[in-house]
Structure formats: C-alpha cells, structure tokens
Specification:
124 residues, mainly beta, four-stranded antiparallel sheet, 0% helix, 49% strand
C-alpha cells in the first residue's frame, strides 16, 4: 500500500484545516487507518484512528477538535482539524495497518505502511 498525504499548510490559531491521505495498492477497506504527528524535537505521537467498521479513537489532546473519517470508495482518509492551537504544529503522517486490535492502535509500531507526511503550522 502506498500512502500520499496532502493538505497541510499555515493557519492561524482558532482556524481549521483538513488533511487527506490517499491510498493505492491493496484494497483500502481492509485497513485500519491512523494519523500521527511529530513536532520538532519531539517523538511521533498518536492523533486519531478509524477502524474498518468506522469506529474512531482520538488522543485526549485533540478530542472534540479533530475528526477522522474515511471514504472507502475514494481510498481516502481525512483529518478535519478545528480550533487549531499553536501546539498542533507538526508534520502529520497517515498510516495503515491490518489486523489491528484496540490495545495497539495508538502505537506507531502497529502500523504497516506510512505516508510521507504533510506539515501543519499554526501561528499564534
């Protein structure tokens, strides 16, 4: 599976942005999809996950502000980011994994495929 993320950019605090990730290769609907982010000088961290069933999970830091969704017909996963804060500034990565279970979906090591990342910068 190849993943291509896009949609990053510069936005003011309080604004919104949507990043997308298009998958190609094996059937997209077979995968659980996740978004992670990595800020300068920090480790990569879990942001959100959407299961094949459509169930969603979020990091506490983004719950209520970010929404993950998927369109299996378009092989695309989205991350809608609202009420953005300067601390949301990071490179955002999409990832795909098979056979994922609830206890591991927040771990980057559980994912099999990664996109190249897209930079989101939130100015204060």
């Amino acid at each position: 599976v190849q993943l291509q993320a896009s949609g990053g950019g510069l936005v003011q605090a309080g604004g919104s942005l949507r990043v997308s990730c298009v998958a190609s290769g094996r059937p997209f609907s077979s995968y659980g999809m996740g978004w992670f982010r990595q800020a300068p000088g920090k480790e990569r961290e879990f942001v959100a996950h959407i299961r094949r069933s459509g169930h969603t999970y979020y990091a506490d830091s983004v719950k209520g502000r970010f929404t993950i969704s998927r369109d299996n017909a378009l092989n695309t996963v989205y991350l809608q980011m609202d009420s953005l804060k300067p601390e949301d500034t990071a490179v955002y990565y999409c990832a795909a994994g098979e056979g994922m279970i609830l206890t591991t979906l927040r771990r980057s090591s559980a994912y099999d495929y990664w996109g190249q990342g897209t930079l989101v910068t939130v100015s204060s």
